[in-house]
Amino acid sequence: MIRTVCKAFFLLSLCLAIQPSLYAYTNFPSNSQPHQQTDTVQTSTTETCLTVFVHGIMSVKPHFTCANCIRFIFDRVQNTNYARTVEIMRQDPIFYQNQAMQEIGLKKIDTTHIQKNNASSALAAVFETVYQANADVPTDNHYYTFGWTGLLSPSQRYRDSYDFYRAFAAEIQKFRDRGIEPKIRIIGYSHGGNVCLNLAKVYQCNPELPTFTVNELILLGMPVQCETDYLVNDPMFEKIYHIYSRGDRIQKLDCFSFKRFFSRRLFRSRCDFKLPNKLIQIQIKCTRMIQSTSRRIQQRRCNYKKHAYNVKSAPIVSGKARFMRNASPGHIELWFFGWTPVSYRHHFPLHPLPIVAIMPIILQAVNDFQEKSLFHKPTLIDIRADHEIMVIKNQKSQRVLTFARFLTHAEMQKLAQLVLQYAPDHYTSKMYNSRIQVASEQAFSEAVMAYRTRKKATRSRCKMNNDEWHQLVPNLY
Q1: CB 116 within 8 A of CB 423
Q2: What is the pLDDT of residue 353?
């Protein structure tokens, strides 16, 4: 009897002790979805984020002539055959099928439907999937593209930045009118990054414009130039991530300026310019295992995979082991999808994804371990998709800061299946180059017609002047 009473008393005490926990647990709609809270709580915890993708220039390879090089150096590309060709290309939907690019201006990305041949929706879909899988709080994301002219011209990039600023400020105001202060993330690729940096210059020159703060500015493969690099110190930008790759050979090729010789890969301090602590420079590296059907090599690959976390092995840490290969992304692989017919490798470890698609997981790893790194040295992130890890350390250092989890093979396969739903059925280099050729020929024919029209008008004016002269001085003829 005494034992029964003691047991009942113990159970009653236990129930009273855990009552608050049970009450808190039952507030969730279900055990499998703990993040789904009531409307009141969700309103206070859910944040709104606006993400804008800004593309790079249109390829100048078909326009690389001596005359155009001089125009590039003197920044006189307006009203030229090159400018008209790029304008025609910007209106051709075929160039929207392999990268996040839509029409000119600020355009919202449709994320509600799966649309073939729409790379912008594909990037938004995979970016959202990766982001939500690693998000700490529920986030209502809205995705946009800003389409600019794509000309290789610093003055035109500033004019495009002015249009970008006004359009984006108007879009932000729509959220503010609803009582929402959104978080802002802008991702600029190649010279699109310089368009983004010029936003600070636009406000400096036009202080009457509405203000906003860019919480995250992500620059991918941006040519670093003295014309815009100092703008990273502007208070408009709260956090700046400069992403680059040693496999990117295009980033430094812009030499069309009297102020510098070539563009740089990294931001560097000068006598009148100091790098701020809010700037984080990240070198992206990809390491893959050698592909072979040999049983002996496959066995050694398995042995290396078992020792993937061995920080004491210099070959493993550096990625220079016998059966490891450097597959760092090129300029195209930072931004374009795998069905791009030119310069995207089929053996790229993230195929068919670009680096920009996995930025949420990269930035999370950097932010978690940034306090361990050295601010004066870039952070090196070595993505080893075969091992499902990321090796994070300072550049030119053998000391590993940490190992971070990367996407599993199953997750990579799901993301690949997701984006392939948006891929075009037929997209070849021959088709791609033919559309460039058509645009060039159309621009040339328009230039010829304009020249003939001007010449005809000049002859008409000369003839009219001669007739008037004959009437005034008839005795001379």
Answers
A1: yes
A2: 96
**Can you say whether the dihedral through the CA atoms of 65, 67, 71, 73 is positive or negative?**
positive
Taking the C-alpha atoms of residue 307 and residue 113, their distance in angstroms, rounded to an integer, is 43
- Tokens at 141, concatenated: 């994301």
Pairwise pLDDT comparison (186 vs 465), residue with the higher score: 186
Task: Please say if the pLDDT value at position 90 is more than 80.
Answer: yes
CA distance 380 to 369: 12
Between residues 13 and 101, the one the model is more confident about: 101
Pairwise CA distance, residues 9 & 2, whole Å: 11
Cβ(189)–Cβ(335) below 8 Å: yes
DSSP string, 183-205: EEEEEEETHHHHHHHHHHHHHHH
**HEC profile of 264-291:** ECCCCCECCECCCCCEEEEEEEEEEECC
Helices within 287-428 (DSSP H only)? 295-306, 314-318, 359-369, 409-420
The answer to whether the pTM exceeds 0.90 is no
What is the pLDDT, as a whole number, of residue 464?
62
DSSP H helical segments within 331-394, as ranges? 359-369
Which one, of 215, 236, 222, lies nearest residue 194 by Cα?
Answer: 222
| Residue 323, token pair as written in the block | 């059966």
Q: How far apart are CA 197 and CA 191, in angstroms?
A: 10
